[in-house]
Specification:
The chain is mainly α. The protein has eight helices and no strands. The mean pLDDT is about 95.
């Protein structure tokens, strides 16, 4: 997919935009990629976006593997190529079984050996598929992760939904030479299956 908007490099930015760019590059991301390439058109938006993203991706009480799993579920629901390309690799490196990630990618019911992973999948799946989380799933997530953790998990799913929509709407491309990892439906969102018990 070709980008629908200009994706300026640092040298093309004004002073406010360059300040945001430099802060992102010096932070945990290390580079301006993904939705920040679109958000940089509004320096204040990009600064706030980056701060929220860093808080949710790098500074929650959830283990990295669980955060990355929730991001992958979200990216797959929206068939967000860049989001999946970035986060499926990170999720595998953080300990999510590659077979579970393949199942999510392909739309077959994933299986999780770890209870907390199954719970995160159930929570993110319900929120993405139905816009609600059943009482039993919510109660289990609150018991497992605490109030803080369940708030963070919900915010992760919401934030990465915004990321997916931004990437998709503006046609933010994968790095040169990378093939799209996801097959998107002809219309609508990808149907996430319930997990294997």
């Amino acid at each position: 997919m070709a980008p629908r908007i200009p994706l300026p490099g640092r040298e093309e930015l004004d002073a406010a935009q360059r300040a945001v760019w430099d802060k992102v590059v010096s932070g945990p991301r290390g580079q301006v990629i993904g939705p920040l390439r679109a958000a940089i058109h509004n320096a204040e938006l990009a600064a706030r976006w980056s701060a929220l993203g860093e808080a949710l991706r790098f500074n929650t009480s959830l283990p990295k593997r669980l955060s990355e799993l929730a991001i992958c579920v979200t990216g797959r629901r929206w068939s967000s190529q860049v989001e999946w390309w970035v986060h499926a690799r990170v999720a595998a490196e953080a300990g999510i079984d590659p077979a579970a990630l393949t199942a999510i990618r392909d739309g077959t019911p994933p299986r999780f050996a770890a209870e907390d992973e199954a719970l995160v999948y159930d929570f993110a799946h319900a929120l993405q598929q139905h816009g609600q989380v059943p009482d039993a799933t919510y109660a289990a997530a609150r018991k497992a992760f605490g109030v803080k953790g369940v708030v963070e998990l919900t915010a992760l799913v919401g934030y990465y939904t915004m990321v997916s929509m931004t990437l998709n709407a503006h046609g933010i491309p994968l790095p040169d030479g990378e093939a799209e990892p996801l097959t998107a439906p002809e219309s609508g969102l990808f149907d996430l299956p319930p997990r294997q018990a």
